[in-house]
């Protein structure tokens, strides 16, 4: 599947017709046994959903018995139950834990049965909904080397900032103010060169799954591989073709795609940097007027962005 709803799950029709030989990763099994002890009892008590709780318990039993196909089936059922519930809003945090734990049990099953790309997809889904970073790192470290990455050339992007449009030059409603606190740092990040090369990004990221906002105004959220994001949205719009505006927006990409984090280092700042997010979008993306409750350091690595700021008054 190239494109999924934001909360995506896998049905029985996607399970293997017969059970491949399970070769369980000792690392993933050990991590899930610890996660079971840490999260399972509290998660089940708070859910108030016996069938979903039973699916998760059976998924962990399958991990203990190293039954890969049962991990996929029961982990997928737990993940699917949480998927359905989360579509209606954000209930108790236990439902998010169910989503993540079910996805990781299924990921271990896919990995054990030689389906590494599906294992990584489920790991990414768990990460996107907040699975603990150390647990995600263990899964990524174990699964990533088993995936054959795409080796494709470019294109290498080069941007000249376009002239400002009339609506950007026109006086803003309210009182616009020059941006303050701008730091001009001589950053020597490999990212400035590497991330212009879409072949490099496809190799590092094409098989990984990310949340994508589609459209302008009425936004719909989707989950897709980064390779699908490139082929369906970014590359067509770069070529001038009609395709949806698409935006990987304010996403903790580096919390689960750890290899890209090696392409930059956070500059020295007066305060500790608590979170590093990524924004990757086509042209035409628009962020509505808003106020952040925390301070930001913004670095434009590739391309350009028009920003209008207002005095806090």
TrEMBL record:
User: JmjC domain: from which residue to which, for each copy?
Assistant: 224-313
Name the InterPro entries for this protein: Cupin_8 (IPR041667), JmjC_dom (IPR003347)
Task: Cite the Pfam families for this sequence.
Answer: Cupin_8
What the entry lists under SUPFAM superfamilies is as follows: Clavaminate synthase-like
Q: Which Gene3D superfamilies match?
A: Cupin
Q: Output this protein's name.
A: JmjC domain-containing protein
